[in-house]
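Work package 3, deliverable 3.1, input record:
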Amino acid sequence: MKIIESTGLGKRYGRTWALRDCTLSIPGGHVVALAGPNGAGKTTLLNLAVGLARPTSGAVRVLDGLAAGSPEALDQIAFVAQDAPLYQTMPVRDMLRVASYLNLRWDGSLAAERLARLRIGLRTRVGALSGGQKAQLALTIALARRPSLLVLDEPLAALDPVARDDFMQSMRDEVAGSGISVLFSSHVVAELSQVASYLVVLGRGSVLVAGDVPSLEQSHGAGLEKIVLQYMRSSAVAA
Amino acid sequence: MSAVAVAPSRATVPWSRLGWVTWRQHRGALAGCVAVLAALGVYLLVMGMQIHGAYSRLAACHSNCGALRQALMSYYGSQRGSVLSSGINAQTVPFFLLAVPVLLGVFLGAPVVARELDTGTFRFAWTQGAGRTRWAVTKLVVLGVLIAAVAYLFSSLFQWYFSPFVAAGVTGWFPMQLFGNVGVAFAAWTLLAFAMSAFLGVVLRRTVPAMACTLVVWTVLDVVTMMSLRQHYLTPVVGSGESPPGGQSAWMLSQWFAGPGGQHISPGQIPLSVQESPSPAAFGNWLASQHITQWWSYFPGNRFWTFQLIEGGWLLGLSAVLMAATVWLVRRRAV
């Protein structure tokens, strides 16, 4: 299975190309890290993949040929946008109900167990949760949808080191053995190597490198962190 | 929310569940609208009971009814002087109520899409399994129907409150400050404000500018309708006579004089001595002696409901177009 396939994918905002001539074919069953400095086009690529943005050029298909943003694709892809936008004024309980009512599949017991384990009260207002709790709530909602593909945009950006570690641990636990593919973006290089089994590095709107981690490490003779830094530096020099 | 529900392929999220989401997100605004109308409604109910009491005493009276008529008219307010300086009474309340539909519609309609764009939650809402089309359609239809129904109930209460003055022949329902507050017009204007502010919310992407823009556009449209559009819904009736035909319930458009050959006579051609004569009969006698006829163009009171349906119809159509355009823009909106 291919979770993302794109050919000549480009997105332009005004005169600036946020993403240009992006050709990718990402296999399923991986935790895919989308790395790159700020402004590399990570969010743009993810928005295109979940149907929030439309390509200026080229095309993107998800989950073996589904059009991005089509009803079938929306049904199987759970997306957590940057800063985990949720309804701030609702209690957690109502936020869960809203999410369950907006989807065909909903694993309520998964959500209840996870939140109990994380000690997130159902009566707490979403706006009163800490950054880490909010990110965990958004991840819980995404997982309870039982998606084939989980897409996370900078899930770690707003978290402190402890919350980051907890979140990465959650991601590892939930994904292991569940068959879910994960695509997440991050500009925090150190964390990538903890979970990623497939790497895509973007720089200035283009794909610099893409491949599964063991073969990349073998061909480059270096660890994941070094590889990412090397490509990010070369893209900065080219700029 | 306990078991994993495995949905059959090609199934869609039920409308009822989307309806609950709509209700949960907008119940606060709906409650605000209902609270404002309820407060105004209590006033109309209390005053309306007094007015109906005064009217039923007047209706039962057979002779020397001047004091009872005066008692009824004390609720209507002074006929002289500026309308706005005469305080809150049955004559001024309808003017204040003309502003209510746009305030209700804007308060409920502007945030429907704009707040999601404002706060970024559209990235949650539009990436769920239900999809953004069904999401937008449900919100617009459910909230539109609810606010129109609430508005209709309120305007029915106003109509009841005011009806004794119409029954007593003080006025008809045609004057602009009454027309918009009774029948289907009040609900239709409310629905238009709701649809317009939801539409402008997607166009402008911000809640407050969408509210401000709707206030301006809606008010201009309302004033143009009252001043120059409404009178063209039907062809007026033309009649002659010394006094206006059709009585108090008619909507008088114009009045002119014509000579025996049908030629137009300007009021300046009528001698000042006749125009200013203290005798009420003098004017009519002079017209008769000159074979001049006084003509009137007007809408009889029984056309009122036709007017209401015409206005309700085009407002409903315009609202539907704005809602469809809103859904279309939501489908097209890309970040």
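Chain A has a mean pLDDT of 91.
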